[in-house]
Amino acid sequence: MITLKNVNKSFASLKVLNDISVNFEAGKTNLIIGQSGSGKTVLLKSIIGLHEIDSGKIFYSDRDFTAMNLKSRKNIRQEMGMVFQGGALFDSMSVEENVLFPLDMFSKMSDTEKMDRVNFCLNRVNIKNSNHLYPTEISGGMQKRVAIARAIALNPKYLFCDEPNSGLDPVTAIVIDNLIQEITKEFNMTTIINTHDMNSVMEIGEKILFISKGFKAWEGTKEEIFDTDNQALNDFVFASDLYQKIKKVNR
Ligand SMILES: Nc1ncnc2c1ncn2[C@@H]1O[C@H](COP(=O)(O)OP(=O)(O)OP(=O)(O)O)[C@@H](O)[C@H]1O
């Protein structure tokens, strides 16, 4: 579980996050949604410590991340896996080397154990016989799978994904969403995903935080989203004709 209490963040005179309090639960896919510029990326970066917040608290389970010194933060970072926008694989490294990288950096495993772990993770995301290919030689969907394999290499408790299916066709996007949800449950991770994608919301929105202009405007589940009276959320969700039709069918 990751808990935020009254988190505030500004850049100079621009207040980006306003008093955000929320629980992100373990074993669930927790989605942060909101319009472009609403503060999703700043929130995600604040949670992982890439931005220092101005005030408030962030807890990893019962551990106060905001109060930790650099050494403790470094330790907790080893419990975090990250899937960045675009996959962010190292182009000069093969698929295998990309997944091996965090193990070389942070684990004390033997070479054989590391290779076993690399193959376990690649197998888990259904990548087979591609260890020696380079990112430019595989599809966008495969690149995302490799990024997920790399993110779970160190067996993280917390998984952070920034627009994990950006640039993918709708079918592959759903496959990636489902894969993230499956591994979240399998390894009981607390997974937080930034997304614009309403298909993701409907597919894996077990817990949804909607932010509007830096404020927490709504939280709930994908089932509850159709019944909300929140105007900002309705404007966001039902911007497309398709979701207006789905709303009518659900009522
Ligand atoms: N390092 C920074 N310095 C100053 N302002 C920033 C910085 N990072 C983000 N901002 C501002 O904070 C606001 C929120 O940005 P953020 O990137 O979190 O939005 P977002 O919801 O993730 O948008 P998108 O969906 O388009 O990625 C924007 O006004 C942005 O210009």
Automatic annotation (TrEMBL):
Every ABC transporter domain range: 2-238
Keywords: ATP-binding, Nucleotide-binding, Transport
Transmembrane segments: none
Lineage: superkingdom: Bacteria
InterPro entries (alphabetical): AAA+_ATPase (IPR003593), ABC_transporter-like_ATP-bd (IPR003439), ABC_transporter-like_CS (IPR017871), P-loop_NTPase (IPR027417)
GO MF annotations, alphabetized: ATP binding; ATP hydrolysis activity
Gene3D superfamilies reported in the protein's UniProt record: P-loop containing nucleotide triphosphate hydrolases
Pfam families to which the protein is assigned, alphabetical: ABC_tran
Chain coiled-coil ranges: none
PANTHER family, per database record: INTERMEMBRANE PHOSPHOLIPID TRANSPORT SYSTEM ATP-BINDING PROTEIN MLAF (PTHR43023:SF6), PROTEIN TRIGALACTOSYLDIACYLGLYCEROL 3, CHLOROPLASTIC (PTHR43023)
Protein's name according to its UniProt entry: ATP-binding cassette domain-containing protein
